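U., I forgot to send this yesterday:
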Amino acid sequence: MAYNEKQKEYTLKYLDKLKEIRFRVKPEEYKIFEEAAQKAGYPSMRQFYLDAINEKVEKIIN
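Result:
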């Protein structure tokens, strides 16, 4: 299935509703994070990062 202009329009509309968080880490740090995520059974690094951030936020807020 080819990517058409209508799909592009929907994708851009969806992305406009989101904020982007980007950060860089050293390769050795990434390796540690990746191993921890795999060991914990996370399906993706994104979910690992989100859970870690949410856990920290919960500690700060409560």
